[in-house]
Design goal:
The protein is mainly alpha-helical. The protein has one domain. 75% of the residues lie in helices and 0% in strands. The chain has six helices and no strands. The longest helix has 30 residues. The chain starts with a helix and ends with a helix.
Length: 154
């Protein structure tokens, strides 16, 4: 059923964002946290996932969409994802290089017990993107509800 695929397409970007936050939590992963390159690549992928999710939602709601309209949405979304990634790269370069973990440090690291982990402290940029993600989810849920009503009406 198309609604099942729609729900999965809507939830994938948000799940990926939470996974990215986890992969950057030094208290949890210690020296195994993502490198700047992996984060930049992941941000680009998330941008493309969000764009494709919006295309899926729009195509379900408006079945008359043309290939040209879908291509425009995909191009704009990919461009915004690339712009966001480049911006994050420039901001990240200002923070200075990250120290490389040696194989010995990586091998010796053990994740601390859950109850000893400090609460996650989100940066201003992470807070902003979490608000953007909430907005995306609200819009996506509204679109899914519209589609459910359309299907119920026949």
């Amino acid at each position: 059923m198309i609604l099942g695929a729609e729900n999965a397409g809507v939830l994938l970007p948000s799940a990926t964002v939470f996974l990215l936050l986890l992969c950057n939590d030094k208290a949890v992963l210690g020296p195994w946290v993502n490198s700047r390159r992996v984060n930049l690549f992941t941000m680009l992928v998330i941008g493309v996932l969000v764009t494709m999710s919006l295309i899926l939602t729009a195509a379900v709601l408006f079945p008359g969409m043309t290939g040209a309209q879908i291509a425009v949405i995909l191009s704009v979304g990919a461009g915004l994802a690339l712009l966001g990634t480049v911006t994050a790269f420039v901001i990240g370069r200002r923070s200075g290089p990250r120290e490389a973990a040696t194989p010995e440090v990586l091998h010796r690291f053990h994740m601390p017990r859950l109850e000893t982990l400090p609460p996650l402290q989100l940066s201003l940029m992470n807070r902003f993107w979490m608000i953007v993600l909430r907005g995306y989810l609200i819009v996506a849920v509204i679109l899914v509800v519209v589609r459910v009503v359309q299907v119920a009406r026949g």
